[in-house]
Automatic annotation (TrEMBL):
It catalyses: XMP + L-glutamine + ATP + H2O = GMP + L-glutamate + AMP + diphosphate + 2 H(+). It comes from Candidatus Pantoea edessiphila. The keyword Glycoprotein does not apply. Homodimer. One of its GO terms (molecular function) is ATP binding. The gene is guaA. Residues 209-402 form the GMPS ATP-PPase domain. This is GMP synthase [glutamine-hydrolyzing]. ATP binds at residues 236-242. HAMAP family: GMP_synthase (MF_00344).
């Protein structure tokens, strides 16, 4: 089978800040076509450089009729490719091409049905509901306050609701489409079919973005890039670094050296578990390094979360550098950076100033003292794509469905200064929480669970004795992409059982609390 260029066909998604922008991108990729998200205020040059086969304008939180509200780069409408505007994206397209948008009296939010007045290629060959009058209806999901009032030249409406005469509009000659509803959400039942029509029949993209093809493409690219040099990879045992390791292993075999560092900030039994998984399932060169003392010494007295991240990051780099020197002919450091790490930082740039939240240590380049060049094979992939690739590569379930664990480990779950005794205590509470969730069949239904050490003391009474000990918070969240997350509504009896076990079994804890904050505004980790 020949290796196809998986980037040959590509869709550009222009982001106006909708919570669903990433969902649009995921849907396109699930259909089998590569796509990229760029912010609305991106330089036009980047759009020409990307050279898309089609463009989708996302929804957005602002009102399109507000002064200075975001607009699509003008080249979007002159570059000569099909354009689909969704909700805000439709409205800005209408305004920019000479039509009018007004604030509607009735806000439409939720499920609704649109009546099709003419079948166009975008909505051809999909299942309609037919009502008793013979009308063709589609179940869609809408969320808008403003709506189109008059159309630009050469546009016409092909679907409407009682409140919204322009639910779907088209300029057939130019292949411009405006949807007041959201095809990317599952509530729009034929949404994927509509997107598929747009991408494959209108933009004429072939579906080359498939796990098998992606793997072949990445392996070839890695071989070309790396040459005869050696690569070192910090293997944590998580999904991203394991997929990165397997891809590199297939590409360059023994030129890859994986380094597993026990930094003293890992969970209970983590080292044994990971080494066991790696030894049983992978045939990798692996160097195991114990560096607890080095990390804890470097962190002594540091309370600030960002400072802690920096120190942990640079201690990792120091060890990688030392190992690289020992190994000779090492030129590359591989990292399992994925798309969301990058998208989050690119999108934050659209707000005008850099909206700094946290410095994820694998984004933003390496410190100057690093002597190695970076190789990041899965940088363009979303988490679920990485998992699909992992499945295709035959990774075990323990890796595929392992909850993510941050690079700085317990270092950002012990608030303030890090001490070994706090790490030991937190490891025990964390293990109890995870064990109980597994016992109650809940672990696999959650996205990330852990405990947090709060450096405050609280009073409790054990037997007849007064205790004045530490507070532990439980954190459990559900999320698809880790950019937003809901706190998990765990059953009270499970919470009671966890709290009871922690207080009874872990010396030094006097109180357990449950974190009921969602992201946004509260991030998943406490620091
Ligand atoms: P936040 O706390 O930003 O977390 O909502 C989102 C996801 O990222 C993980 N996380 C990190 N991972 N280095 C990492 O490798 C970091 O510094 C870091 N901070 C947060 C977090 O565990 C969650 O999965």
């Amino acid at each position: 089978m020949t290796i196809k260029n998986i980037y040959e066909y590509r869709i550009l998604v222009i982001d106006f800040g909708s919570q669903y922008t990433k969902l649009i991108a995921r849907r396109i990729r699930e259909i089998g076509v590569y796509c990229k998200i760029l912010p609305w205020n991106i330089n036009e040059k980047k759009i020409y450089q990307f050279s898309p086969n089609g463009i989708i304008l996302s929804g957005g939180p602002q009102s399109s009729i507000e002064i200075n509200s975001p607009r699509a780069p003008n080249c979007v409408f002159s570059i000569g490719v099909p354009v689909m505007g969704i909700c805000y994206g439709m409205q800005t397209m209408v305004i920019q091409l000479g039509g009018q948008v007004i604030s509607s009296e009735k806000r439409e939010f939720g499920n609704t049905k649109i009546k099709i007045t003419k079948v166009i290629p975008l909505i051809d060959n999909i299942n309609y509901n037919i009502d008793s009058y013979g009308n063709m209806l589609l179940d869609v999901w809408m969320s808008h306050g403003d709506q189109v009032h008059s159309l630009p030249e050469h546009f016409r409406a092909v679907a409407s609701t009682n409140n919204c005469p322009f639910a779907l509009i088209v300029n057939e000659k130019k292949h411009f489409y405006g949807l007041q509803f959201h095809p990317e959400v599952t509530h729009t039942k034929q949404g994927v079919d509509i997107l598929k029509n747009f991408i494959t029949n209108i933009c004429l993209c072939k579906t080359l973005w498939m796990p098998k093809q992606i793997i072949k493409h990445l392996i070839k690219k890695l071989r070309n890039k790396i040459g005869n040099y050696k690569v070192i990879l910090g293997l944590s045992g998580g999904l991203d670094s394991s997929v990165t390791a397997m891809l590199l292993h297939l590409a360059i075999g023994s030129q890859l050296i994986c380094i597993f560092i026990d930094n003293g900030l890992l969970r209970l039994q983590e080292t044994e578990e990971i080494m066991n998984i790696v030894k049983t399932n992978y045939n990798l060169n692996i160097v195991y390094i114990t560096a607890e003392r080095k990390f804890l010494n470097a962190l002594a007295g540091i309370k600030d979360p960002e400072e802690k991240r920096k120190v942990i990051g640079s201690t990792f780099i120091e060890i990688f550098n030392e190992e690289a020197k020992k190994l000779k002919n090492v030129k590359w450091l591989a990292q399992g950076t994925i798309c969301s790490d990058v998208v989050e930082s690119e999108i934050s740039l659209t707000k005008g100033k850099f909206n700094f939240i946290k410095s994820h240590h694998n984004v933003g380049g390496l410190p100057k003292k690093m002597h190695l060049s970076l190789v990041e094979p899965i940088k363009n992939l979303f988490k679920d794509e990485v998992r699909q690739i992992g499945i295709e590569l035959g990774l075990p379930n323990e890796t595929l469905f392992r909850h993510p664990f941050p690079g700085p480990g317990l270092g950002i779950r012990i608030l303030g200064e890090i001490k070994k005794e706090y790490c030991d205590l937190l490891r025990k509470t964390d293990a109890i929480f995870i064990e109980e969730l597994q016992k109650h069949n809940l672990y696999n239904k959650l996205s990330q669970v852990f405990t947090v050490f709060l450096p405050i003391r609280s009073v409790s009474v054990m037997g007849d004795n007064r205790k004045y000990d530490w507070v532990i918070s439980l954190r459990a969240v559900k999320t698809v992409d880790f950019m937003t997350a809901d706190w998990a509504h765990l059953p009270h009896e499970v919470l009671a059982c966890v709290s009871n076990r922690i207080i009874n079994e872990v010396n030094g804890v006097s109180r357990v609390v449950y974190d009921i904050s969602s992201k946004p505004p509260s991030t998943i980790e406490w620091e």
